[in-house]
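Retry 2 of 3 after timeout on previous attempt. Resubmitting structure tokens to design endpoint.
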């Protein structure tokens, strides 16, 4: 099989799909997911109804690890964001590609110990996207933006 990227696909309906992709592109309406357990199973995935595509280090993750309360903005470059998804999940990260009018954007989580190397967030799956000024630690003073 050609070059594959390990991903966890989270759907708006709560489903979680794990596998590899070789053709995910933000401007395409679909991509293929090779099953993590059986590489002979390849499923087309529609971008419609997706929350995010997480590009991960491992499928197992680190279940014993808990995210730290302090946010350190050293990882990644670009704009600092706090993304709140429709389901309440919050993701802090940096991006160079966020534009409210686009259907999505890539984000690099700020937590270096995170299992996610980066994620593609579908804007329709967000409740709020906040740009965090560099002078703050992610608290008061954040520039709030409606998605």
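Retry 2 succeeded. Sequence:
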């Amino acid at each position: 099989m050609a070059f594959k990227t390990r991903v966890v696909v989270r759907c708006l309906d709560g489903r979680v799909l794990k596998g590899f992709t070789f053709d995910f592109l933000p401007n395409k309406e679909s991509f293929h997911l090779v099953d993590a357990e059986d590489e002979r199973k390849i499923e087309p995935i529609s971008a419609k109804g997706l929350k995010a595509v997480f590009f991960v280090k491992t499928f197992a993750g680190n279940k014993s690890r808990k995210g730290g309360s302090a946010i350190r903005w050293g990882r990644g470059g670009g704009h600092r964001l706090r993304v709140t998804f429709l389901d309440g999940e919050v993701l802090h990260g940096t991006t160079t590609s966020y534009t409210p009018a686009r259907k999505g954007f890539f984000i690099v989580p700020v937590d270096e110990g995170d299992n996610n190397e980066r994620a593609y967030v579908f804007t329709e799956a967000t409740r709020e996207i906040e740009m965090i000024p560099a002078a703050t630690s992610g608290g008061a003073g954040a520039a709030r933006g409606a998605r």
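Attempt log closed. The chain has one domain: 5-59+70-145.
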